[in-house]
Predict the structure of OmcA/MtrC family decaheme c-type cytochrome.
Amino acid sequence: MMKRFRFNTAYKALLGAGILSLALVGCGGSGEDGQDGTDGEPGLATISITNATTLNSTISSASVTDGTVTVDFMLTNANGVAITGLTNANTIRFGIAQLTHIVDTAADGSAGFDHGYQWQSYINTEKAPDNPPTDVSGITPQTLYQAGIEAASGCDTCLVDNGDGSYKYTYQQNIANVTTPVAVAFDANDTQRVTIELSANGLVTNAHYDWQPSSGATDGIQSRDVVSIETCYTCHQPDSLKMHGGSRTDIQNCVVCHTSTSGDPESGNSIDFTYMIHAIHRGEERHTFNADGEQVAAPYKIIGYRGNLYDFGKVAFPRSPAADCSVCHVEGANAPKDAALFTAEQSNTACIACHSEKPSNNHSSTDCMSCHQAESPYHGTGSAVKRHGDVLKANTIAQAMSVAVSNVATNDNGQLTFNVQVLDQDGNAVDQDVVSQSSRVVVAWDIDKDFPAYDAASYSQRRISLSAGTFDSSSRTYTITATTFNLPADAQGKNFEIWSTLQACFNNGGYGVADIALTPCANEGTRQVTIQQTPYRFVWGAQAPDTTASVTARRNIIDPTKCQGCHGAEIHHYTNGVNCGTCHTPDKTLRTDASYPGGKTPTSFAFKAHHREGHELNHNGMNSGTVIKSDCMTCHTNDGIVLGRSPDRVWRFGDLTDGHDIWVSSDAGACLSCHQPYLTDAVRSHIETNGGVIDGASIDEVKQQAAETCKTCHTVDQLLNVHGN
């Protein structure tokens, strides 16, 4: 029986092509190859938004026609793959604002104060207070306007998915003639800004686009780019500044809503971005004066989501003096385009935000710039730039000064002696009348380890005031003798330092003061500023420093530049660098604190730094989380949390029940400097099982019993991972 084969169309075509090729070969032809065909269209690589693990947004264009705004944007992942499938069911919102030149109108109808260019949102609502709290002081609930953004979910046809990762959105808000509740007159010559805020699958992306409708230009147009969010990250961690539930991350988007007409109805306070940021960071230092002329606190407060109170009076701004605007307003290379705008003297807003409307008993005004400007300042005063400069100039001069230590030796009684000179910026010794005689130098040894044992020589014994020495007026030199402590019996070969906390005196700035200069400390209206000088370090020989020996540096723990990046030169007290450990040793005595379990807290540098309110906002202060304490790299060096490097270190803690002294082994103490209040039985058992001691009766007992093996498992990478880095 003959088999029958059935061929489909594809096989027939293939068979035909094969026969044809054989026929051509059989002919022995050597004809030229035919021309290559044109390339086909490349396949489009896309990913659905439901499957995306990263999310980026970019606005490519925007336009206005008869008040109708359309915007074209693109969604991609981190690898540039187009993301499709966005619908108005996703949480996506759009903002629209105009950068308008604001000039007040004077009482006579003429042009008044020029405020420069300010953002005005086209989308505003009028809001009455919603059940404001009755037990919160310093608030004045009232009906206010709030700028906002529109949700794509409010329109079924406004969002169009082009299928290739690009989208088009048509705004619901027509901007041609906005009259209520806040009038905004559209001007095609003014810069317009559109913004996107998108949240999907736990991912967030923000984008903005500025353009001039009359020309379509995006470059060379009016701008207001004053501060970079990268500057904020000097003190804040990036994830901690995702506001409003985490969906808002870009400053350029923030200013579209936080406009000069926006307020918080429950508190009655402005939420203008300039005002809000300055008032928040003024924190616990913000004050005013009451009708009796008494200075009273004036903390900035907001009643937020679900009636939660945000009392920014608990904020401790880390930079001192606070007049140092350069903390946020960074100028120079790579600075924002309009970085210098803060010196333009065109806004009263920042002044009032920091200083309140009544910054002194005899001074009350909301029109600060009428007096504090360079062109025609009020008699006896000066521009805002000068007044802030007056505060900073003393610090600038003090940083250029220095302290010279020489002739270190011992006297016949075996006491340490040395000479000290305070030098001006030109290296000339200054007279004692411009140096605070109560300011001190601090002596320490074992600086390569953990500084002197507290019981052998406490920091209060090792600090020596200038007034305790003698002064030679001809050479302007102090001779200091250490009479309050003894050199260690095994001093030879130890690493020593003499650390200056000396302070120079300056006249205060203010009304009628032309310039800031070194001033006799006995004069009225002076202030003391610490001179910046690295410690004088040496290795002790038989009777004096061994000038042939090299000082051994202490192991890396923190990076002082990170600390000073946020704090500046002044951190708390004795503000000459970050040398806190020379006084706040691991075994320093406890401090009474009724709010802490057991009533006693350690005073070691590690404990104080880890538990300082500004470093621990997840547990203290405002509980805002804007500084994430668990980010070790905020302060530490890359190798600063290596365990097992100082096995002889012993920490003093207070027992959590009654506060009596307990002694803790080296690595365990480092952990407890953060975690002691949250210590569980399981963690306690884990520490003790692995050779740690957390309730020793004495330093010697801990040294005898401790056999820590923490570093075996707890590597740097593991520690960083468990702390969320």
Q: What stands out?
A: Residues 1-29 have pLDDT under 50 and may be disordered. The CA atoms of residues 558 and 635 lie 6 Å apart. The longest strand covers residues 91-105. Residues 9-26 form the longest helix (18 residues).
